[in-house]
Amino acid sequence: MTTLLNVKDLRAYYGQVQALHGLSFSLNEGSLVTLLGANGAGKTTTLRAICNMVRSTGAIEFDGKPLNNRSTENIVRFGIAHVPQGRGTFTTMTVEENLQLGAITRKDSAGIVSDIERMYAHFPVLKQRHTQQAGTLSGGEQQMLAVARALMLRPRLMLLDEPSFGLAPLVVRDLFGILGKINREDKVSILVVEQNAQLALELADQAYVIETGRIVMSGNAKDIANNEEIRKSYLGY
Amino acid sequence: MELFTNQVLAGIATGAIYACMALAVVMIYQAIDHLNFAQGEMAMFSTFISWQLMQWGVSYWAAFIITLAFSFVAGIAIERILFKPLAKAPVLTNVAGFIALFAIINSSAGLIWDFTIKQYPTPFGSSPFLGSQLISTHQAGMIGVTVLLLLGLYFFFQYTRIGLAMRAAASVPESARLVGINTSWMIALGWGMATAIGAIAGMLIAPVVFLEPNMMGGVLIYGFAAAVLGGLTSPFGAVVGGFLVGVFENLAGTYIPGVGNELKLPIALALIISVLVVKPAGLFGRQIVKRV
């Protein structure tokens, strides 16, 4: 297995405040990795640093190429799709326009058309609502749309920031099922940040636990899930 | 009745110009959240460029096209040089930037072409349109060119990828960057297009108001009024607002006793304020809901 994403000694800053204190982790091609941790631990900041949306130092390598000092919009072109916290829906545009925007960097118009159909097959509810303004969708539907929009890039790596946030438990199950399927069938590597540790650990191959901007624990997702001590002290369940 | 039809049609003709200016204002407002006070001066300068080209013997339509290209590039240049560095600056800094731009363009035009009033040609002539006394060929031309422009813009924003990218960049910049859109260039492109749209308005209205460095002052106020009336967040609203302001201005001047030409502007603005008291976001504007 080759390393797809390699992060070394990542430090990130909001103004004068340091949010990440030398964080290192890696993600293998084709795997599904989860970053766990409490509120304010630095999970979102880690994802934002990968896409250069926050000032950071340290080395971030994607497929052997450094990502540092590239603009957010250029990093997308490497095949990294980021579903931000709050889903980032283009609320005033239609569902279909949201999907087209996901593929805006691609040149193959025939491929884009067939991919939109593929997304409608994955998420039938989006097909029913394809002419509707995206802002009128329910929270769960908007999260589906955000995942579909990210997939329209045909990404090699998908970054998901708390996809379960604000969704009903059943919808979360559904969504995570789809994420697992995308990971296995479409061979998309996934890095998912979650507060819902239990569910994320069921889904992931590998897990890292962050506390106050540092990795405090890492390992096989199953091992972490089975280790009661870690669960109690870091994951709270 | 004929007077009424006549005034409505004339109102639609000048309303078309207000619609163009309002659209230019809204395009920049959507991109950078500021009102471009210099929009009128930019349009005036473009109009002078076309006049100069015609003085040098270039035909009207060739001068028209060259001016559009010049305005497009100049708009991008203004954004790159002046407003891109101000993007994160406070509102008042930006306002100062717009006022500076206003003064610089106004004075440069005065310096180059002086402040005397000049005749500006119309390619449509000013005979009665289709033998009717209701509207002149130039007024019909103003409406026709504006309608073509609006249709073109509609198709551009609705059916092209770059139009889609521009809309995305204006509505949710962060998400736009996350799908790979270079939002900074989309803003510059918006400036270029808004400047070219303003140039069209300037060239169409110049035969009516005559060419001089202060020609767009009143027009821009109506344009602002139209944009605010229609809703600053809605290009469609801005256009409708432009036509409404044009028609209302004419009807008020004709039918309300004592208004005449002098009081047309305040009456039109009073109407707009009344609308805004009832609908603060404008007729078609989106109510912006912010979480606190």
3D architecture notes:
- The complex is a heterodimer of chains A (237) and B (292).
- Chain A is 38% helix and 28% strand.
- Chain A has helices spanning 43-50, 72-76, 95-102, 109-122, 124-128, 139-151, 169-185, 197-203, 221-226, 228-235, and strands at residues 3-14, 17-28, 32-36, 55-62, 65-66, 80-83, 157-161, 189-194, 206-211, 214-220.
- The longest helix of chain A has 17 residues, at 169-185.
- Chain A is globular, with a radius of gyration of 17 Å.
- Chain A starts with a strand and ends with a helix.
- The model of chain A has no long low-confidence stretch (mean pLDDT 91).
- With 292 residues, chain B is mostly helical.
- Chain B has 11 helices and 2 strands; from the N terminus they run ααααββααααααα.
- Chain B has a two-stranded antiparallel ribbon.
- In chain B, strand 1 and strand 2 (132-136) form a beta hairpin.
- In chain B, helix 2 (39-55) runs parallel beside helix 4 (91-113), helix 5 (137-159) packs across helix 6 and helix 9 (217-230) runs parallel beside helix 11.
- The radius of gyration of chain B is 19 Å and the shape is globular.
- Chain A binds chain B through residues 51, 53, 71-74, 76-77, 81-82, 84, 88-93, 97, 100-102, 104-105, 149, 153, and chain B through 161, 164-165, 167-168, 171-172, 174-183, 286.
